[in-house]
Amino acid sequence: MSAMTVPNLAIGSDHHLMPVLGFGTAASPPPEPLLLKQTVLDAIKLGYRHFDTSPRYLTEEPLGEALAEAVSLGLVGSRSELFVTSKLWCADAHGGLVVPAIQRSLKNLKLDYLDLYLIHWPVSSKPGKYKFPIEEDDFLPMDYEAVWSEMEECKRLGLAKCIGVSNFSCKKLQHILSIATIPPSVNQVEMSPVWQQRKLKELCKSKGIVLTAYSVLGSRGAFWGTPKIMESDVLREIADAKGKTVAQVSMRWAYEEGVSMVVKSFTKERLEENLKIFDWSLTQEEMQRISTEIAQCRIVGGEVYISKKDPIKSLEEMWDGEI
């Protein structure tokens, strides 16, 4: 089949174009490097151009190898046709460590620049300690001013086209906006029909920040996952009526909410299915049903169970009670 075209959203003051559907590489356990590399090549052939990684995922190097191979094989005309996101891990979220961290990511990815660099979580941990889950005693409060200033430096140096944050609550996002010279372009957070992030979405929209959803399908199969989306009666009824899958309805809902999304799959058939959400739409009534008839519930633990002792308490603290 010919490659599908994914719509773009313009992000940041430079209006850099970001494909609304990204290929996520976070998995527990991490994917085998050869599997990831082949899946990325398959994804590019299908039409994916946006790839999301992090040092935490242990996927930067195989992703970089796959992207280099895609360019050399002519699957894309040049690097500029690809959109690559990586993130600043908690152990590097300190003054003096941000620029070296992005430089390591670029080396791993074999790239000269990132399209988007995000602060992965709004907490810091002891420098040099990359053990995961993070030990309780290793957490440190983030010096937002120092870290964001160095994120801005990454953009000024041309190491990142755009900068942003991930897992930031309304309160924490407003704090970054109050100190920023260059405001964040993106906030990547958990968002799905069972956790719709209405308050955060409105804030981001009012500030010109693009919201990117992860776990839009519930991250089934991961230790932090939930079956609540794929087993939703409301989503199933809508999917059956439209001749679509529950996953496609969930993703189409996110698209019609005006957000971008990062979705993970390592099977070619599912990758192809996930692309088939742009040539049909949900009715106003269907959108209303999803908005009002599905119980709201965070995926407790998220991508990081921030504390092994008490994940719910620590997530509440991170989200300033917005949980």
Structural summary, described in words:
The chain has 323 residues and is α/β, with parallel strands linked by helices. It has a single domain, classed as Alpha-Beta Barrel (TIM Barrel). Helices cover 37% and strands 16% of the residues. The protein has eleven helices and twelve strands. The chain has helices at 33-46, 60-72, 98-109, 144-156, 170-179, 198-207, 233-242, 246-256, 268-275, 284-293, 311-318, and strands at residues 8-11, 16-19, 21-24, 50-52, 83-88, 114-119, 124-125, 139-140, 160-166, 186-190, 210-214, 260-263. The strands form three sheets. Strands 3-4-5-6-9-10-11-12 form an eight-stranded parallel barrel, surrounded by four helices. Strand 4 (50-52), helix 2 (60-72) and strand 5 (83-88) form a beta-alpha-beta unit. The termini are far apart. One of its GO terms (molecular function) is oxidoreductase activity, acting on the CH-OH group of donors, NAD or NADP as acceptor. Belongs to the aldo/keto reductase family.
